[in-house]
Design brief:
- By secondary structure, the protein is mostly helical.
- It has one domain.
- The chain has ten helices and two strands, in the order H-H-H-H-H-E-H-H-H-H-H-E.
- The protein has helices at about 1-15, 35-70, 75-95, 100-125, 130-160, 165-195, 200-210, 215-230, 235-255, 265-295, and strands at about 160, 300.
- Strands 1-2 form a two-stranded antiparallel ribbon.
């Protein structure tokens, strides 16, 4: 157990450390200017891209391994596949005009189970010294938002050439959607197994619970941090994303800590309603802002011709 915790901690620290490599670097032109400085910077960017590809591949292998050992029943597996098809299909369709969306979805899927393992190990380490509700509410925002944001940094520095702040935001949306697809699949499986009366009833309850909890929640959190990256204020907005995520987890964590009390239901639903309203308002404002701020310049993948 201790070796697993140490290994997970090392992986997490390596991922966090790599943020400083591309986070404050300007996006280079796809063409090589021939100057020594440009060549050196281009080589560094290529090494960063290689690191991104290796981390993505490692994450996908771990996801496949984790799911191959998961306890799925036919109904929960079908629900997970159906949700993934609808959520990812709509994401790729609606955001098809923006670059890096597929990369974002794949990264979100790749880091989801890594984040889950880190959450579990940190929970075991802190549960004896920190109140239960604080552990439940606070661990996930730290691990998950850093890992998701790291993908936005990689994609927006060494995969695409963003021309508008919305390109950063939509990459964040895609990362969050990929993350939620895997997370929800695990949730459906657990809800189904916990319901001893009916597999179908357990799966339907899982679908309902995750819908009420806002399926766009992770996309909203990561979009906040991605917006900060576009404004060259990544740390501030990443902390804001963590704070919003913590607030979203606060209601359920309090309900778990005081399972015999009725009052935690009210802050839980108030937080959920606020998240839904904020998400919807953000979508509406994006639809209004983008046409007004459209510069007519199409963002590109690095390496493509202008």
């Amino acid at each position: 157990m201790s070796s697993t915790v140490i290994h997970s901690g090392r992986v997490f620290l390596v991922m966090v450390a790599t943020i400083v490599l591309p986070a404050f670097r300007k996006i280079l032109p796809a063409e090589d200017t021939g100057t020594p400085g440009a060549v050196h910077s281009l080589n560094r960017m290529r090494r960063t891209q290689t690191l991104y590809e290796l981390l993505t591949a490692a994450g996908l292998v771990y996801v496949a391994y984790d799911f191959s050992h998961g306890a799925f029943v036919p109904t929960s597996a079908l629900a997970a596949v159906a949700y993934a098809a609808v959520a990812l299909g709509l994401t790729l369709l609606i955001l098809r005009k923006h670059p890096g969306i597929a990369h974002g979805v794949v990264w979100g899927i790749a880091v989801s189970t890594v984040a889950g393992q880190l959450n579990e190990h940190m929970n075991h380490l802190l549960i004896r010294t920190v109140p239960d509700w604080l552990v439940i509410a606070g661990i996930a925002p730290l691990n998950e938002e850093v890992l998701k944001f790291l993908g936005v940094v990689f994609i927006c520095t060494c995969v695409i050439r963003p021309r508008h702040w919305a390109d950063y935001v939509f990459v964040g949306v895609a990362v969050g959607m990929g993350f939620s697809v895997t997370e929800n699949a695990i949730y459906y499986a657990n809800m189904t197994l916990e319901n001893l009366d009916s597999d179908l009833k357990g799966t339907l309850l899982g679908l309902l619970a995750r819908f009420i909890a806002n399926p766009l929640m992770h996309s909203f959190f990561t979009a906040i941090a991605a917006y900060g990256l576009s404004r060259r204020q990544p740390v501030r907005w990443l902390l804001i994303a963590m704070a919003v995520h913590f607030t979203a987890n606060f209601g359920p964590s309090i309900s778990t800590a005081f399972d015999d009390a009725l009052w935690p239901i009210f802050p839980t639903f108030l937080i959920l309603i606020c998240l839904w309203v904020t998400t919807i308002v953000s979508i509406v404002k994006l639809r209004k802002i983008l046409p007004a701020e459209d510069t007519g310049v199409k963002p590109q993948l690095l390496g493509s011709k202008a």
